[in-house]
Amino acid sequence: MKHVFAHWIFNGKAAAMAALVVSASLCVATAFGDKPAEAVRAARSVHLWYDPSMREKATGVQATMTVRDTVPGTYFCVACFNMGYCGFQEHFDGSRIFIFSVWDPGNPFDSSVNPNAVKEEMRVKCLFAKEGVRIRRFGGEGTGGQAKAPYPWKTGEPETVRITAEPDGTNRVAFTAWVKKHGAEDEWARMATFSTLHGGKGACIGHASAFIEDFRRNFESATKTRRADFTDVCFFTGGGTTTSRKVTKGVFTADNSSSRAISAEPAPGGWTLSTGGDTPDRSNLLNKPMVALPAGR
Description:
The chain is mostly beta strands. Helix content is 9%, strand content 42%.
């Protein structure tokens, strides 16, 4: 997936290197920005980084997603973090799911590794899965463990995701994905817990972001608009969920493909991301801080 490019930039790399790579991406976009829309294979992946200054401090993150426009072949990630990502997808047949992935140690760019060839002691371990959640190994963008479940999220209705990180022995961290569907029950559901080697980073999420990705990539998909609000973001610190810090600052980035149909803008309590179709060109805002509007505005 193309969002891994941006994930790797912000995963412990120097800020100067991040700026250099994003700058290079903007040069690529400028060079090819005048290409006709039919030549663009996919809507460009767009990301909103939740307050990068918290990169090494947070032990959890929570955010609410409200999809405004969607088409089959879309991933709305609510919480991407240093060792994985979690959110909701619409598949080619229109079915909608929950998805949570955690990487084994290694290079997430490497598409050649057979996930079943990774040594047992190096693999992600599933510690818990809610009934109805399917667990499998994945490859193609690094390797790791993945949880999927049918989940009929709806356009215009909010869904909240929480990711927590806790120590699992001396050299592992356990990441848990929780979902709260707003409505009659309005309660948290623990979806899955994965344990992975932390490489000395301890029990933290490292960084956190949202992204929208077109994984259909059939040229026509680039002509369709995908849009969602990401609001009520907070970080947890010190373990558990009792100490939280509300997030009001974000940074807009995108992958290095050519489309200029990308946008991010402040929204009440958060931000709106959109890509593809008739999305207005706001590429001039790439790599710039963006402050959320006051909630309820």
